[in-house]
Amino acid sequence: MSSVSKYSDLRTRLISAIVMAAIAGISLYVGGALFQITLLIVAFCIMWEIGGLSASDSGYRVAVSFVYAVALCAAFWASWAVALGIFATSLIGFIALLKPKDIPLRCGLAILAFGGLVVLSTLRNDFGMSQTIWVIACVVASDIGGYFAGRTFGGPKLWPAVSPKKTWSGTVGGWVLASLVTSLFVVFHDAFTNSNFYWSVLIAIFAQAGDLAESALKRRAGVKDSSNLIPGHGGFLDRFDGMLGAFFLIFLLFAFELQGLLFR
């Protein structure tokens, strides 16, 4: 690859990153309906990508993805009973797209995404921006810490059959950096206590699990990226896999009414 093409790709990635950061930052700051609409778009794209990795009919994928987004919309603005009914309908339609061997992993990711996006909205709009940013910061720290620790120390592979490049040193490095980032929140924000250190490691673990689940999906499909919707970055699932895993952990806390253990 020539130096020109290398810098061309870097420029594309940088522009896409700036646009994504601006959209995410503005919607997160404003919150409310704008943030939820942004999440609906993300939900549609993620479901469309999961279906596409099974080489399913494009028109049917769009329909199922739309119903999936409607289910999320109902969770935001209607009732859980309605949301779960629509969500079940979207999953049934989704299963019809898939080969039997593809059903567990792809439906699991669809459920992971739904729960993660619902609680992301709840956390931002009911508990505030600082709590949401903390979870996001832990996920980003887990990713960065894992990358640099893995590159620096190497060592035994975490799960080579699913993700050949991930190592145990990278995994632990992600936990450590998530804890270090949490220390800043504990020091500078009264809403955070020492218990958040333990939760930061759990958040990092669930973020890494989301990453592994998406890696397994792409490996089975024989592709590098979930789609090409984001120029230079692949797809929405490539960018949000760790976030979905982390926020699904928060979703479980809310589902069992244990959110008080983490958010005050």
Structure write-up:
Strands 1-2 form a two-stranded antiparallel sheet. It is mostly helical and 264 residues long. 78% of the residues lie in helices and 3% in strands. The chain has one domain.
Annotate the secondary structure layout.
Elements: H1 3-30, H2 32-52, H3 58-77, H4 80-97, H5 103-127, H6 129-153, E1 157-159, E2 163-167, H7 168-188, H8 195-221, H9 236-255
Helix pairs in contact: 1-2, 2-3, 2-5, 3-4, 3-5, 5-6, 5-8, 5-9, 6-7, 6-8, 6-9, 7-8, 8-9
How would you summarize this macromolecular structure in one to three sentences?
With 264 residues, this protein is mainly alpha-helical.
- What's the arrangement of strands in the largest beta sheet? 1-2
| Low-pLDDT segments | 1-7
SSE sequence, one letter per element: HHHHHHEEHHH
Number of E-type strands: 2
